[in-house]
Amino acid sequence: MSISEEQVKTALKLVKYPGFTRDIVSFGLVKSIHIDNGHVKVQLALATNDPNIPAAIKNNAESALRAIEGIRSTKVLIDIHAPPAGAGTGMATTRIPGIKHVIAVASGKGGVGKSTVAANLAVALEQTGARVGLCDCDIYGPSISLMFGTRERPTATEENKIVPIEQYGLRLMSMGFLLDDTSPAILRGPMVTRYTQQFLRQVEWGAIIVTTPQEVALIDARKAATMFDKVNVRVLGLIENMSYFMSPSDGKRYDIFGSGGGEREARRLRVPLLGQIPIDITTREAGDRGIPIVSEDRQSPVTKEFVRIAKGLRERLP
Ligand code: ADP
Known about the structure:
The chain contains ten helices and 13 strands. By secondary structure, the protein is α/β, with parallel strands linked by helices.
């Protein structure tokens, strides 16, 4: 019986990335699989400076592959890249006192669900025990505060420091809050833009890119990744939103925007695909009502996926 690609993937899923509980397949490290008459060749790509990591992965992958029935030979090739500058230690930028990690949620394209992902991921991270603040840098449409159902405005302390709003256990801030409701954004926009740019330049970021599986969104996701690379911001991974739709009437899965796009793009960018969020009516309704689905319904498959992503992120960002 010939060996299938699925069998090889299943075997590789048993191989954990050293120091992590996640496997090398879900981290998006597998670039190609060739199977020829029982001879299996697997190409992996890694970004690390630590020579022990590829050595351990190669060993474990080969043992896992050897367990496949009918296997005649295994070859695991690893393409090693230095991690992007800025990853790890020795950053030129500053850390904010009291804050361990600052994660930018970006998309390069509107409407793919950046705000929805940012809001739900923030709540999921809070549920895994992190203290989380969420800042909406969009000065023209502060959708985050709407998604959290609040019209409250932050107050200032006597030292003129802004006190963020608290909602669902999170601290919220929006650059939009700094704009006067009654005046057009453009009047005071430049000032806010200056603050935002300063904030962006001076803080040590990690980035998550949100995309849909469609080619048009993936092209913009790629541009966003290139931009982060240029400014030495480590891309922590991709989140594919609107990945599929599970129809409540027939229980079938529909790949509305195609399938596999996020996985392919993650592989191309050599970053993990952190998760896949389905298109879900209750997620949209909850967002419109100002309650992120992760706060509202712990049993929803969308909530479970966000919690899985949050746990994975916390493992990657200890
Ligand atoms: P962006 O911030 O990228 O412009 P939004 O998060 O505002 O995108 O999402 C655009 C619209 O799509 C919103 O109405 C939102 O509720 C909806 N939406 C986003 N993600 C999902 C999803 N997984 N399922 C259903 N609706 C979604």
